[in-house]
Amino acid sequence: MTTEADEPDWLKNYKPEMHPPSAIPGKKGFTPGLSGNPNGRPKGTRNKKTLALQEFEKEGSEIAKRVVEAALAGDMQAANIALQRISPPLKARCEKVQFALDPDGPLTTQAQQVIAAVADGKVDPDTGKILIDCIGALAGIKGTDELEARLNQLELQMTKRN
After folding, report:
1. Rounded to an integer, what distance in angstroms lies between the CA atom of residue 157 and that of residue 29?
2. What residue spans define the domains of the chain?
3. How far apart (Å, rounded) are the C-alpha atoms in residues 101 and 119?
4. Other C-beta atoms within 10 Å of 131: how many?
5. What whole-number distance in Å separates Cα of residue 88 and Cα of residue 124?
6. Alpha carbon of 15 to those of 29, 89, 160: distances in Å?
């Protein structure tokens, strides 16, 4: 333990500020209902994003024209901006695939069939991963259904005993 005599000079006159403790356990410093700005936002103040959007609406078409003119003059950055706005980014498309899959078989067998189709080159690896993820999601759904059925059965047994 340090005594007052052991404290450095700069700490001798220090008095910690006492903030009201939070009413929410585990949360420090803020008490619900007490604002750091009790007057709130001044009336008539407009959002900065709204102001910027309104300014852009006034001059937006002129800006777009200048970007297109710059692109036509050979400015590659302007061309990139224009092309990004004109055409959406390309998305990967999955082709229809056909391979032997037993929809009534166990899920592990179905996953093995997908892996075999990937190995044989009938299905590309990305599509195979998507199919295996779907089988995994189906396994989770089936597991939930089975738990619900077991729970219903247990509840029915409990009501019969009472």
Report:
1. 53
2. 49-86, 107-161
3. 14
4. 22
5. 25
6. 18, 60, 70
C-alpha 47: how far from chain center: 26
Burial (Cβ within 10 Å: 0-12, 13-18, ≥19) of residue 117: buried
User: Hey, what are 6's tokens?
Assistant: 């052991």
Give the separation between CA 71 and CA 79, rounded to whole angstroms: 4
Please state, in angstroms and rounded to a whole number, the distance separating the CA atoms of residues 34 and 20.
Answer: 10
Amino acid identity at 137: A
Q: How far apart are CA 100 and CA 116, in angstroms?
A: 10
Residue 112, CA distances (Å) to 53, 120, 135, 137 in order: 54, 12, 11, 16
Report pLDDT digits (tens) over 104-152. 899 999 999 999 999 999 998 988 999 999 999 999 999 999 999 999 9
